């Protein structure tokens, strides 16, 4: 449905990552009709969670080392600084809405695992099989080829540490979905949803549900959300840092540069790719792919546009070394026959 541009005067803006393609038209439609930032983001992310083409968000996401799909999601309202985040949730198809309900209905900000599932059940959230055939087949092929026979025999009570070190994102550059927007009342919000990295250690949380690392919104200044190696943005508190740098007077461009500079201090651990998406409260934005690949892009919608537009992310290399994401190519197992 093409957005109608009822609010031409308002400074509306949406930025989402490459995986947000199917959801951003819905968010644009709702924002242009006067919906709140949070409502518009939640609706857009729900579409992505259902999108069969998107294999790292919601239904169809990649499983962890044990073959279970664990989902993470978050929302943040930049006008109240309330957040809702859920992590390592199994069996529920719309984690973003569970995160939203957490924000609305609990005095807490973050639930994980069994507690998150209990809350989801209590609010009647939609359940469903998250592990789709393509992911099940890929996991089985990996298990059959990579797991030592003695560990296969003991499964799932086998040591996972050595296998975890080999597990990398099977689809580099196609990952989480992150959405940022400002509505007609200049409320700014952020939302994220992901299955995290494929073949992660069970219980691993990336940055997507960690407010301040994978997302942050403050209507006084702007918002930021990240995709890629959450292990990096957790260490540098990237999303909060970008908004704080804007509070300190930097433009959105400089604030993102400064957050990229923070990453240059990272030593050891997982150094890979991260894409930083940011907006300010005047309708400006910047998206930078740290160690990114040339095809990295994001989606932008402004009221002057007929439809959301894909834009290339600016690439900044912070290291001469090839990112550590190739110990063995998970693509061997995830490629369709
Ligand atoms: N940032 C996500 C995480 O660390 C994954 C991704 O965006 O690729 O779980």
TrEMBL record:
Superkingdom field: Bacteria
Example of a GO cellular component annotation carried by this entry: cytoplasm
UniProt xrefs under InterPro entries: Ntn_hydrolases_N, Peptidase_T2
SUPFAM superfamilies attached to this UniProt entry: N-terminal nucleophile aminohydrolases (Ntn hydrolases) (SSF56235)
Active site residues according to the UniProt entry: 176
GO molecular function ontology, one term from the record: hydrolase activity, acting on carbon-nitrogen (but not peptide) bonds, in linear amides
Binding, substrate: 204-207, 227-230
Site for Cleavage, residues: 175-176
Protein name, UniProt field: Asparaginase
Gene source species: Paracandidimonas soli
Lineage per the UniProt record: Bacteria, Pseudomonadati, Pseudomonadota, Betaproteobacteria, Burkholderiales
């Amino acid at each position: 449905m093409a957005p109608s541009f009822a609010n031409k005067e308002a400074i509306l803006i949406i930025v989402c990552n490459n995986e947000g393609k199917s959801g951003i038209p819905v968010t644009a439609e709702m924002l242009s009709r006067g919906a709140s930032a949070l409502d518009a983001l939640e609706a857009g992310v729900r579409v992505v969670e259902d999108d069969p083409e998107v294999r790292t968000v919601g239904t169809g996401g990649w499983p962890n080392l044990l073959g279970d799909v664990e989902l993470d999601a978050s929302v943040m309202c930049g006008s109240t600084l309330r957040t809702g985040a859920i992590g390592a949730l199994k069996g529920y198809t719309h984690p973003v809405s569970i995160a939203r309900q957490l924000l609305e209905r609990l005095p807490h900000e973050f639930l994980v695992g069994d507690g998150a599932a209990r809350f989801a059940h209590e609010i009647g959230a939609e359940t469903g099989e998250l592990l789709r055939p393509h992911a099940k087949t890929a996991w089985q092929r990996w298990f059959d080829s990579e797991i030592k026979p003695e560990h296969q025999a003991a499964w799932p009570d086998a040591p996972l540490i050595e296998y975890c070190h080999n597990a990398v994102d099977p689809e580099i550059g196609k990952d989480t979905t992150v959405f940022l927007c400002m509505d007609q009342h200049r409320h700014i919000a952020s939302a994220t949803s992901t299955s995290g990295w494929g073949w992660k250690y069970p219980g691993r949380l990336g940055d997507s549900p960690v407010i301040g690392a994978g997302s942050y919104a403050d209507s006084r200044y702007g918002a930021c959300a990240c995709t890629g190696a959450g292990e990096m943005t957790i260490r540098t508190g990237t999303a909060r840092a970008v908004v704080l740098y804007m509070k300190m007077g930097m433009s959105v461009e400089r604030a993102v540069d400064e957050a990229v500079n923070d990453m240059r201090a990272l030593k050891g651990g997982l150094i890979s790719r991260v894409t930083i998406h940011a907006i300010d409260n005047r309708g400006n934005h910047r998206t930078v792919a740290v160690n990114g690949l040339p095809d990295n892009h994001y989606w932008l919608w402004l009221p002057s546009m007929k439809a959301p537009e894909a834009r290339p992310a600016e690439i900044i290399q912070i290291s001469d070394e090839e990112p550590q994401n190739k110990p063995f190519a998970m693509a061997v197992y995830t490629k369709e026959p």
